Amino acid sequence: MTDRIPEVTAAPLSEAQRLEIIKLVRQTAQSEILPRFQKLTASDTTTKMGPDDVVTEADKAAEAMLTQGLNALFPGIPVIGEEAVSERPELRDQIAEAELAFILDPIDGTWNFVHDLPLFGVILSATRYGQPVFGLLYDPISDDWIVAAESSPAEREGARIGRRSLQVSAVSDRAGLSGFVHLNLLPEEKKAAMAALYPRFHRVTSLYCSCHEYRLLAQGAADFHISGTLNPWDHAAGVLIVQQAGGVARMLNGEAYNTALKRGYLLIAPDEQTWAHLQRTFAFLEDD
User: Fold this and answer.
1) CATH for 15-165, among 3.30.1450.10, 3.40.190.10, 3.40.640.10, 3.30.540.10?
2) What is the pTM of this model?
3) Where in the chain is the domain with CATH 3.40.190.80?
4) 256 DSSP assignment
5) Which segments of 4-159 are extended strands (E)?
6) 157, 168, 211, 239, 259 from 114: Cα distances, Å
7) Domain spanning 174-286 has what CATH number?
8) What is the mean pLDDT of each run of 10 residues along the chain (288 residues)?
């Protein structure tokens, strides 16, 4: 007997609602994030799972403001923030069960933020039973954002740049691909094999910031991304945005991405042919 698939009845977010969300994110950055940037003290920063997994007072304050604002805009809708989940892991399970849920990463790239590097962002997504239906990648430094919804294309917008439609890269030479791999997050037994593949690519790097990695993918400035760390606050918005910019985002085994997934590898590519090429290249990751 199979589980019944819940009937999907949630209406998409309206344009007015999307604008209110963007306004809230921008206000939060101005009130809680930027005033603390390059002004943190030792007492403002603690670690979670390891020395590179840091959290600051800015993360906590920004998540609190975003959560309060979304609760006011969307009463009764679950708001799942990274910092809340770090204290109550069971909250993550609410995402896949909810007809509509919001997922927050109040400061993505906290390691960069702590070390005064202006490469961090705010990630916000809305999901329907775990499937992304709205995504926002906001850069507080440049005060611009990339946004997409299930029924609208990926666009970048800001006061200085206006509004631009986005398109993933057009690949002409698969020997010249550039992309993102978080080598330090792979299982120890996979690291050497992954590193040995680097010479096959034009460039392999990590920005320590999923927000900006997905922004570059959606703008066609990078070609691929492979990740085995499936935190929904890192990926849900970016997956939808890349797809709405013409790209392909699936699990390495071919399964559709869903925030309920906790194991496996998420593979992003600009087109089906490149995705299949990379799937063969990275197949060793799923070998036992």
Assistant:
1) 3.30.540.10
2) 0.93
3) 174-286
4) B
5) 45-47, 54-56, 79-81, 101-108, 121-128, 131-139, 144-149, 152-158
6) 27, 31, 16, 26, 28
7) 3.40.190.80
8) 39 90 98 95 71 84 97 96 93 94 97 96 97 98 97 94 96 89 95 96 96 98 97 98 98 97 97 97 91
